[in-house]
Amino acid sequence: MTDPEFHLNCPLPLANHEQVLLAHGGGGRLMQQLLEQVITPAIDNATLQSRHDSAVIEVGGQRFAFTTDSFVVRPLVFNGGDIGKLAVCGTVNDLAMAGARPLFLSLGLIIEEGFAMERLQGIMRSIGSTATAAGVIIVTGDTKVVERGKGDGLYINTAGIGIIEYQQQIAPASIRAGDAIILSGDIGRHGIAIMTQRENLQFETAIASDCAPLHREVAALLNAGIEIHCLRDLTRGGLASALVELAQTAQLGIQIDEHAIAVTPPVRAACEILGLDPLHVANEGRFIAIVPQAHAAAALERLATFGTDYAPALIGQVTTADPGLVTMTSLIGATRIVDMLSGEQLPRIC
Amino acid sequence: MKYIDEYRDAAAARALAEEIRRITKRSWTIMEICGGQTHAIVKFGLDQLLPPEITLVHGPGCPVCVTPVETLDAACTIAARPEVIFCSFGDMLRVPGSAVDLLRVKAQSGDVRIVYSPTDAVAIARANPDRQVVFFGVGFETTAPANAMAVYAAAQERLDNFSILVSQVTVPPAMIAILSAPHNRVQGFLAAGHVCTVMGFWEYEPIARRFRVPIVVTGFEPIDLLEGILMCVRQLEAGRSDVENQYARAVSQGGNQPAQQLLREVFEIADRNWRGIGVIPRSGLRLREKYRSYDAEQRFAIATAAVARETECISGLVLQGIKKPHECPAFGTRCTPEQPLGATMVSSEGACAAYFRYRGRIASK
Question: Which residues of chain B make contact with A346, given a CB cutoff of 8 A?
Answer without folding.
Answer: 90-91, 93-94, 114, 348
